[in-house]
Amino acid sequence: MTTITGPVPLCPASAQPCTCFRPFERSCHASAAEQARRSSGWLGDRIPRALTLFGHDFETIEVLRVVVVAVAAALVWFQAVRPVAGLDLVGVAALLFGAWPIFREAIANIKERRMTMELSMSIAIVAAAAISEFFTALVVTFFVLVAEELEHLTVDRGRAAIADLIDVMPHEATVRRDGVIATVPIDTIAVGEHVLVAPGENIPVDGMISSGLSYVDQAHITGESMPIKRSVGDTVFAGSINQSGALDIQVSRIGRDTSFGRIIDAIENAEQSRAPVQRLADQLAGYLVYFSFAAAVVTYLLTGDIRDTISVIIVAGACGVAAGTPLAVLGGIGRAARNGAIIKGGMHLETLGRIDTIVLDKTGTLTFGEPRVLAIHPASGRSEADLLGLAATAELRSEHPLAKAIVAEARARGIAVAEPDSFVYTLGRGVAAQRGDDRILIGSVKLLEAEGIDIPAVHGGDAVSSEVCVAVNGHYAGSFAVADEVRPEAAAAIRELHRLKIRTILLTGDNATVAQSVGAGLGIDTVEAGMLPEQKLARVRALVASGAKVAMLGDGINDAPALTAASVGIAMGSGTDVAKESADIVLLANDLERLVATVRIARRTRGVIWQNFSGTITVDALGIALAAFGFLNPLLAAFIHVSSELIFISNSARLLPAADAMRLPRKAP
Ligand SMILES: Nc1ncnc2c1ncn2[C@@H]1O[C@H](COP(=O)(O)OP(=O)(O)OP(=O)(O)O)[C@@H](O)[C@H]1O
Ligand SMILES: [Zn+2]
């Protein structure tokens, strides 16, 4: 029962209808060789368009070019074919066929007024042929062709590592509709429907378990290596594996909207959006070509030696930065994704690698954000149940963690919670609600004070629990002590951030006593409490303006402006949608140590890119000098060019997540 809905999208790479049936068909991830294989071959399919050699796919025509060039080079070397009218026909023909892709690229680059390696290599090949050095021209061509194939292999491996991640999404799901069970394509499922997942199957949607109990492996989504127990009422994510029991899941998100869909979006964007460092890499590559041309002209004017001049042009390679940089960025983002952090573009990865300050929010970020009511302090003349009932009514429609705690406590005590007639939420302060004749205010001390309400000096509250105050019809009615649990890994994560020389600042809307006690317990450098959302924003802006590279980590609606203002905004996966939309990075794993790991990945990526930059400049400068003074011949120059580039590209490839690293090693206890 497979139906294709809508037009088949075109692959941006080939402009053909997309041939790879990814769960979210937007772009075709197939390599050029894979696409060639799928289209029909030559001579009525007797010769396939793609070949598999050493376990890798190559286009037949490209393999043919390499072979022809190599054979021609041997023929020329052994002078097996006599030149006709002084012209080495074998050499000319082999060059025209073999080096055609290089020439074609060079011509295109001239039209675009871009300086590239293909251009300089074309000039060198033509120059060598012009002085009848066909052997040199052919060997240089051979090197360039082989290097290009190897480069494609590496980049394809990068894509494959990422595609691997995408492939775990099922294309079909089993739904229960009006009591009938049917298997349907994923994109026909609607939010609110019930999906059945058997043990061992991948979960196809984000949703809430409505019946069943199982262990769920979420390694793809959050990087958590251990399966976790999930039962009725728990949330599960698309892309995770249902290990032990049958589950009935009520769908809350499908396709691109799922957490997993976001990961894929992020990775695809990463391939398209260019990090500033990538632009720098392209520029550097252009400058290196100019520089080698200038050096070649100087060499020719001083020495008059055409072979040395050709060597100077050939030796300078820049693909190590031009191709190595995007590969490193892709690798960094892929690795981070496997680690449970979605980075929405290369630029953010780069910024994260440079941060020196991290601003943290408290509730939901350093703590679980699932607070519980610890104590109820009604004002004299009120009962606990009375106070709780009024408070829960006011909070019923609020998404704030404190609100949920109060409503939950009321329900737990069997108190019927009435709907409010109306309510107004003031960000960072609290709620004002109307219920019958009662006007209920609930929130911070500031909220009540702003309405001119007298708050008794002693009204509960201690170092660990936040305080929520209530007033009814302009009179103080009591308060709740609500406490949240600090995430167990928080202290270690803060220590590691300090070890990475990153300053930590806690900005919270909560009161100073709680903020100080949490901050001191975790060893945070600076603690600022009682911050309204606009004050958090102003603080982050001031930090950025002072020249700091600031990461802001938050989860709430009240954090969203600050997330946008920071150099890089990071949202907790468990946070509100607003926060996740505003952020540049989403920490699906909700694990602060994963944040540290992501910072490390970002720094490593930057490190690799700069190694490639400095390595390329060094090798090129040395090579040009050696060639200019006659220490290299064109063949040696081509070898240096190609091998140094391949080294730098492999250096970038180290960042790619290993294909089998689907499961991360368990954390040491
Ligand atoms: N829905 C609400 N119910 C009760 N009190 C609220 C509510 N919203 C805000 N408040 C009060 O305003 C204060 C600040 O809220 P805000 O949401 O800005 O921060 P927070 O949740 O305390 O902590 P953080 O800023 O670390 O996330 C809270 O500590 C609480 O006293
Ligand atoms: Zn090159």
TrEMBL record:
Keyword Lyase: no
EC number(s) on file: 7.2.2.12
Domain P-type ATPase A: 169-268
Keyword field: ATP-binding, Cell membrane, Membrane, Metal-binding, Nucleotide-binding, Transmembrane, Transmembrane helix
Transmembrane segments: 61-78, 85-103, 123-147, 284-303, 309-330, 613-632
Name the UniProt record assigns to this protein: P-type Zn(2+) transporter
Catalytic activity: Zn(2+)(in) + ATP + H2O = Zn(2+)(out) + ADP + phosphate + H(+)
Main subcellular location: membrane
KW Metal-binding (keyword) present: yes
